Amino acid sequence: MDYKDAPGSSGGVVRNSGSENTADELLTSLGYKPELSRNRSTWQVAFMSFVLASIPYGLATTLFYPLNGGGPVNVVWGWVMVSLITICVAASLGEITSVYPTAGGVYYQSFMLAPASYRRLAAWVCGWLYVSGNITITLAVNFGTALFFVGCVNVFETADGGPVLAGEAYQVFLIFVGLTIICNLVSSLGNKWLPLLDTFAIFWTFAGVIAITAVILAIAKNGRRDAAWVFTHFEASSGWAPGWSFMVGLLQAAYATSSTGMIISMCEEVRAPATQVPKAMVLAVVLNTFAGLLFLIPLLFVLPEISDLILLAQPVPAIIKSAVGNDGGAFALLIPLMVLAILCGIGCTTACARAVWAFARDGAIPGSKWWAKVHTGLDVPLNAMMLSMVVEIILGVIYFGSSAAFNAFSGVGVICLTAAYATPIVISMAERRKTIQTASFNMGNALGYFCNTVAVGWTLLAIPLFCMPSTIPVDPAFMNYASVVFFVFSAVSIFWYLAWGRKHYAGPPT
Question: Which ranges does the record mark as transmembrane (predicted)?
Fold first, then answer.
């Protein structure tokens, strides 16, 4: 294969003039050699950030959690609440990213902001959280897609009313592996076309949502709920106390918005990352908020009995089929969501590979020299992409031991990314936001401290919250194994730090 050497050796790419050169000069001043082509504009970055969350698909695959946690109140107001929190997270990260726009993202930012006495440890911990979160969220997206595809196929029934596809563990796993390979192939072989794919996804999303909304509300074969029920009905089915049940149901919204900071890993492929990426993060959250409401509220107006839906792993296909009353019509309306699912997987695969590559080029991953290489012909960090793909497939085997594996993947992804996002924010607050006073994207101290505090508070809540099982009493098959997966990543990180990092890891270049 044709490779470009890692930073510090020969090799390079032809650059265009203007903002690209300015961005490359800034990257060089931060200690890195430009290796990837800058082929994305502000809107294209915003579109990719939108695709990473992939509303409404991200909300469709996890609708079980708020339905089980609190019903319509959990679905609507949980989404609004977490979206507002995520705007604070995006704005907080945007300030810091405008100062340090590198693919290392929050990992690099934590190192640069922290005092010399603990900057290496801060970067190491944050980097492992960020990489682990990228990998497990990408895994959760593709695994959720596999489960969703099974649910979509089963809107059709056999002659005796049974499912067309049994959804055995091996079937779900094979679909997941196939989807993972497809996403990696598209991301690696079609890198230069990905901005166009993200732009297409925006129009496809709103066209699909409008089509679903119009059809299910117009037909509503089994009637419509009234507005009071949609916006005020609370029905906790999880077994937890009502207040905590509502909180556990927030996993849907947290999962759908957890990708907010993943776009930072694309900084070295953006023409003016110091201004484009912060704006794109905030803009994408705002777009996602409205798209989510546009999708969720119509579903609630035609919602069947919640007690029946929470028995299903994927309730959305059943909701649409109930509203349309026709197998073929329901499947046709699900096609936009199925396409979005694949586009989301491609976007997450792309961002995940950059996160792994950026961490590896600073020597923080075993075998870093290999994972830090960039393939010149494809202009992507192919080795890092293959590493993340293999880890995702290995972790996917957990599904054979627990049907609640998707809960673990999505939960640990949210935990790791949320904690990683909070790390540079906490350090920035500890230094009284001095570094970002001259940032090109600056909220000012009053609004800045407010957003920073909200982001850190959300992190402190999310870490224990998403280790909880979604339903009690719990048995091994439905246990939330997020804490176990989190422990595995933590153990690898600690072992590698003690075995190698403590003596050899110097952190990012300064």
Answer: 45-65, 77-100, 121-149, 169-189, 201-220, 240-259, 280-303, 331-359, 380-400, 406-427, 447-466, 478-500
Q: Which range marks the domain in which residue 330 is found?
A: 3-504
Q: Give 39-42's long-range contacts (Cβ < 8 A, gap of 24+).
A: 39/192, 39/195, 39/269, 40/195, 40/266, 40/269, 40/270, 40/271, 40/276, 41/195, 41/271, 41/276, 42/272, 42/275, 42/276, 42/279, 42/280
- Please give the C-alpha separations between residue 366 and each of 154, 371, 459, in angstroms, as whole numbers: 43, 9, 28
- Rounded to whole angstroms, the Cα distance separating 131 from 88 reads 22
Tally of CA atoms within 13 A in the half-sphere of 294 that contains its CB? 18
Tokens of 423: 């790390």
Residue-level length of the chain: 510
- Do the beta carbons of residue 387 and residue 369 sit within 8 Å? no
Residue 509 in any domain: the answer is no
Is 161 exposed, middle or buried (CB count within 10 Å of its CB: 0-12, 13-18, 19+)? exposed
The pLDDT of residue 24: 80
Q: Output the 3-class SS for 85-142.
A: HHHHHHHHHHHHHCCCCCCCCHHHHHHHHCCCCCHHHHHHHHHHHHHHHHHHHHHHHH
Instruction: Specify the CATH number for the domain of residue 435.
Output: 1.20.1740.10
Q: What is the DSSP string of 62-81?
A: TTHHHHHHTTHHHHHHHHHH
Report if residue 68 sits inside a domain: yes
* pTM to 2 decimal places: 0.87
pLDDT band at 484 (very low <50, low <70, confident <90, very high): confident
* Structure-token pair, residue 188: 């690696």
Q: Residue 407: its pLDDT value, please?
A: 73
- Residue 263 in any domain: the answer is yes
Helix ranges (DSSP H) in 361-437: 368-371, 382-396, 405-430
Report d(CA 426, CA 457) in Å as an integer: 10
